[in-house]
Amino acid sequence: MTSAARGHRRLAALLLVASSALAGCSVIGGSDAAAPEPTPTPRTGPAETRHAVPYATTAPRQTLDLYLPAGDGRTVFPLVVLIHGGGFVDGSSAELSEVATRLVGQGFAAASLDYRLSGDAPFPAGVQDVRAAVRYLRANALGWGVDPHRFAAWGESAGGYLASMIGATAAEKTFDDPALGNPGVSSGVQVVVSWFGPADFGTMDAQAKENGCDDAAQQHGAPDSPESRWLGGALDEVPDRVQEASVVRQVGAASALPPFLLVHGTRDCTVPPGQSEELAGALRARGARVTLVRVEGAEHSDPRITAEQEQPSIDFLRTTFGLSSH
Question: pTM of this prediction?
Answer without folding.
Answer: 0.90
